[in-house]
Amino acid sequence: MSEKEPDPPGPVRPRRPEDFNALYAGTPPWDIGRPQPAFVELARAAALQGRTLDVGCGTGEHALMAAGLGLQATGIDTAPAAIAIAQRKARIRGLRAEFLVWNALDLVGLGQQFDTVLDSGLFHVFEDDDRTRFVDSLRLVIPAGGRYHMLCFSDRQPGDWGPRRVRQDDIRASFAEGWRIDAIEAATMEITIDPGGALAWRSTLTRT
Ligand code: SAH
Questions:
Q1: Are 205 and 181 contacting, i.e. CB atoms less than 8 angstroms apart?
Q2: How confident is the model over 61-92, as pLDDT tens digits?
Q3: Measuring from each residue's beta carbon to the nearest atom of ligand 1, which residues come in under 6 Å?
Q4: Nearest Cα residue to 125 out of 92, 97, 85, 166
Q5: Cα angle: 11, vertex 16, 19; to 5 degrees
Q6: Beta strands in the chain (DSSP E)
Q7: CA distance 141 to 110
Q8: What atom in ligand 1 is closest to the CA of residue 130?
Q9: Residue of 36, 132, 144, 152 with fewest CB within 10 Å of its CB?
Q10: In 3-state terms, what secondary structure has residue 156?
Q11: What is the pTM of this model?
């Protein structure tokens, strides 16, 4: 009797803070050196307001974009190397934004509330258990009426390289309690390794 063949290994995805941190010794594929166009569009539409948090901020482009709009901007990331780069960019660009090494699963510990939370590429990092913890964490720091804007890889993106694909239904299920889903739209997430970018969802949710 033959043993069942083991499943082929899946893609290796960074998950632990040290995995991400090591990637910032170079330029990771998502670190395009400017804000994602899908979020620039939101800024142009005046959708960003008030105290703004960039979760999983990486090298800080979205917090810096918010700071450039005159908003009170904070960026958090578990990778110290990314936070150091973000702080340096803020200094060089003469922008005022606070960058902290912090876990997005414990936003309450920041002791602040946020009117706008920007998430470019964090939600799709989490496995199911952490995804639930992350949404719980977000819920506690966004007051009613506050908004969460999220850009993640979509299930329309072929292949299995890169982060986990997210389905519209996953987003609806994750934000079923305590949120209004304003939009889930097809968008592109720019990456350094493909000029065409990756197929993504841009979602906007309001805390109820
Ligand atoms: N928003 C950035 C980075 C996206 S990549 C950009 O658009 O360029 C995802 C980021 O989430 C990485 O920088 C990684 O270090 C960070 N990250 C992963 N798990 C995290 C967690 N639990 N808390 C905070 N940041 C996390």
A1: yes
A2: 999 999 999 999 999 999 999 999 999 999 99
A3: 20, 30-31, 56-58, 76-79, 82, 103-105, 120-122, 125
A4: 166
A5: 70
A6: 52-55, 73-77, 98-101, 116-120, 147-153, 179-191, 194-207
A7: 9
A8: 22
A9: 144
A10: coil
A11: 0.95
Taking CA atoms only, the protein residue closest to ligand 1 atom 16 is 56
Atom of ligand 1 nearest to the CA of 104: 23
Q: Where are the beta strands (DSSP E) in 62-137?
A: 73-77, 98-101, 116-120
84 C-alpha to ligand 1 centroid (Å): 14
Amino acid at 65: M
Q: Which two tokens stand for residue 51?
A: 């105290």
Q: Are 172 and 107 in contact (CB under 8 A)?
A: no
Tokens for 65, please give them: 């974009």
